[in-house]
């Protein structure tokens, strides 16, 4: 673009400011650098047609840039297709008349092959070899540029009368050497400009494809039928009244549209290539982070395991020391007791012998010593005891382990929110929850009057009309839903529901004390914990506001797991064995299974919800 501006500047300088001889020098120097590319629209890749220029300095066909910006309707800003400079508002385009005149002259000269200069030998280049520059690929021939100069000068003379009129026969004015009178010839005479158009000459119709019916050139285009036709086809009944335009004009118009599409495709490709690179970079960062955190986590858990093993060894050592101390004390006491028992037995033996003697002298002499109680230790308060016998240490270990387990179980929840939109992974607990299968049946007394409950209490669908049913206090009268018969207040429970291809449904649990009449607000705070599907693709857990979920693949059978004691409700994709979502809360009272097939949506959602038998894990 800078080169084009320089050429245009030289063009005007040549036409307005220089003497004729200097003009030819400038013409040659400018023609050497003037290229057809400088007259080409970067969108349609054709010569400018009604050129307009943006504030950033780039030029385009008026139709091309308008079509390009028409595709940006609703965008926050517009931008230049070349340099991507943004504009807050859509610029108002005005035709660059100077560039248009130059371009039209360029088209005519190129169409005529550069004719219009009478005598090439009178050109100053032939008298000044130093001005002869080699023509490079894509540049305009000097004769073409000279013709442009002639015609532009005629435009200037026709539009602005000169204060010093001169005829083409007047000699060039004198100028400093080397262009003095004695060194230069008279300037070339100007020949009248020829008129040229961009339309195809009549003799060139022979090169166009022929109409198979009229054997004439297919020079027209029927926009109604989207085919090329000849001038005779226009008069036929088949094309009479249709929108017809010259084929070449339609070609240029659609070529510009194709250029706009190409620019848009380039932008889309670039945007997606950047996104691909961004994803690759993110993946590399995630992989590096996972590697680092894996190593760190393994190290931490290894230290934790070592710490637990060391703690275990210390506790066992305490047990051993306590046992040894108890054994040692017992051994000392037993020895002392055995010695005392031995002495007492000897004394008893002496008493027995004394009682049997007939020697009353010996009896009376020994009786005082044997009849009195011997000195004996009071063993009533002596015992061998230990705290280990009460189980206090073991209870302390259990309590500590429960606290550690609670802390460890919090780790997966920390990453739960961030992993909801990640690639789903098979949940190893899916098989275990099936062990808590509960025989859930529907409570017809709670069903909305439009709901049809099967006789076995396992199937519910929404009918077209309200049924005449008793208005029990437990019946929902506005929301099309039904509760399970069984009240769940403790333990773990699991059931599965076939949702098939329904577009809308709700599944979960509800508190026994929820409001069932009139308008209902569904959220955990109001006693509802359930998963919803709307419009076939929008999954959400009903909180305030709703927690939107990305569920892939789409489930056709949903498993519901409830741990009443811990306040946990989880949802599973049964076929894919994937965890969909888990929510933890506190259930204030008894809860019931909650089902809503939603309305029929004009037959698009008439399929029922079916409670299915749970397949036990192998």
Automatic annotation (TrEMBL):
Coiled-coil segments: 327-354
Identify the residues that the record assigns to the RING-type domain, covering every copy: 41-84
Q: Which residues form the B box-type domain?
A: 206-247
Which residue ranges are recorded for the region named Disordered? 110-137, 156-204
Alphabetized GO MF terms? zinc ion binding
Against SMART domains, the record matches this protein to:
BBOX (SM00336), PRY (SM00589), RING (SM00184), SPRY (SM00449)
What keywords is this UniProt entry annotated with?
Coiled coil, Metal-binding, Zinc, Zinc-finger
UniProt cross-references to Pfam families, sorted A to Z: PRY, SPRY, TRIM_CC, zf-B_box, zf-RING_UBOX
Protein origin, superkingdom: Eukaryota
Q: Which InterPro entries match?
A: B30.2/SPRY (IPR001870), B30.2/SPRY_sf (IPR043136), Butyrophylin_SPRY (IPR003879), ConA-like_dom_sf (IPR013320), PRY (IPR006574), SPRY_dom (IPR003877), TRIM/RBCC (IPR050143), TRIM8/14/16/25/29/45/65_CC (IPR058030)
Q: What are the residue boundaries of the B30.2/SPRY domain, all occurrences included? A: 419-618
This protein is called what? E3 ubiquitin-protein ligase TRIM68-like isoform X2
What is the source species? Gymnodraco acuticeps (Antarctic dragonfish)
């Amino acid at each position: 673009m800078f080169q084009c501006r320089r050429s245009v500047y030289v063009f005007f300088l040549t036409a307005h400011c220089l003497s004729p001889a200097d003009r030819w020098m400038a013409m040659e120097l400018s023609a050497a650098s003037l290229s057809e590319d400088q007259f080409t629209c970067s969108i349609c890749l054709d010569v400018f047609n009604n050129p307009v220029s943006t504030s950033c300095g780039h030029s385009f066909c008026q139709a091309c840039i308008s079509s390009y910006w028409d595709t940006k309707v609703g965008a926050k800003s517009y931008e230049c297709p070349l340099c991507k400079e943004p504009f807050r508002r859509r610029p108002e385009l005005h035709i660059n008349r100077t560039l248009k005149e130059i371009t039209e002259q360029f088209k005519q000269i190129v169409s005529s092959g550069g004719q219009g200069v009478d005598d090439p030998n009178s050109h100053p280049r032939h008298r000044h070899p130093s001005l002869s520059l080699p023509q490079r690929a894509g540049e305009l021939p000097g004769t073409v540029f000279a013709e442009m100069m002639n015609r532009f000068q005629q435009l200037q003379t026709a539009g602005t009368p000169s204060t010093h009129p001169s005829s083409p026969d007047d000699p060039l004015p004198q100028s400093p050497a080397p262009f003095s009178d004695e060194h230069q010839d008279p300037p070339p005479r100007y020949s009248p400009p020829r008129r040229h158009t961009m339309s195809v000459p009549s003799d060139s119709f022979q090169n166009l494809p022929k109409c198979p019916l009229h054997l004439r050139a297919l020079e027209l285009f029927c926009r109604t039928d989207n085919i090329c036709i000849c001038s005779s086809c226009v008069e036929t009944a088949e094309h009479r009244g249709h929108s017809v335009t010259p084929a070449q004009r339609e070609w240029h118009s659609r070529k510009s549209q194709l250029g706009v599409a190409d620019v848009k495709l380039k932008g889309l490709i670039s945007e997606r290539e950047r996104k691909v690179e961004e994803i690759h970079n993110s993946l590399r960062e995630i992989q590096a982070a996972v590697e680092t955190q894996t190593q760190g986590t393994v190290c931490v858990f290894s230290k934790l395991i070592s710490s637990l093993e060391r703690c275990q060894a210390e506790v066992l050592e305490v047990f051993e020391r306590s046992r040894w101390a108890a054994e040692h004390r017992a051994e000392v006491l037993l020895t002392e007791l055995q010695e005392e028992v031995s002495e007492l037995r000897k004394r008893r033996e002496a008493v027995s012998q004394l009682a049997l003697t007939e020697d009353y002298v010996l009896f009376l002499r020994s009786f005082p010593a044997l009849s009195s109680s011997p000195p004996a230790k009071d063993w009533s308060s002596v015992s061998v005891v230990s705290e280990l016998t009460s189980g206090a240490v073991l209870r302390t270990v259990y309590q500590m382990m429960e606290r550690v387990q609670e802390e460890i179980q919090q780790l997966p929840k920390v990453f739960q929110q961030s992993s909801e939109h990640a690639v789903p992974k098979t949940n190893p607990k899916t098989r275990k929850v099936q062990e808590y299968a509960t025989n859930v049946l529907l409570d017809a007394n709670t069903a909305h009057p439009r709901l049809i409950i099967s006789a076995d209490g396992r199937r519910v669908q929404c009918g077209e009309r309200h049924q005449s049913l008793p208005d029990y206090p437990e019946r929902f009268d506005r929301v099309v839903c039904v509760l399970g018969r069984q009240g769940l207040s403790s333990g773990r429970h699991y059931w599965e529901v076939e949702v098939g291809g329904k577009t809308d449904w709700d599944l979960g649990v509800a508190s026994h004390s929820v409001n069932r009449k009139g308008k209902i607000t569904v959220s955990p705070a109001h006693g509802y914990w359930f998963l919803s599907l709307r419009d076939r693709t929008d999954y959400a857990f009903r909180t305030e506001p709703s927690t939107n979920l990305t569920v892939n693949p789409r489930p056709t059978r949903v498993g519901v797991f409830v741990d009443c004691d811990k306040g946990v409700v989880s949802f599973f994709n049964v076929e894919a064995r994937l965890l969909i979502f888990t929510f933890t809360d506190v259930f204030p009272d008894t809860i019931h299974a909650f089902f809503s097939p939603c309305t029929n949506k004009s037959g698009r959602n008439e399929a029922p919800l079916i409670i299915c038998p749970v397949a036990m894990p192998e």
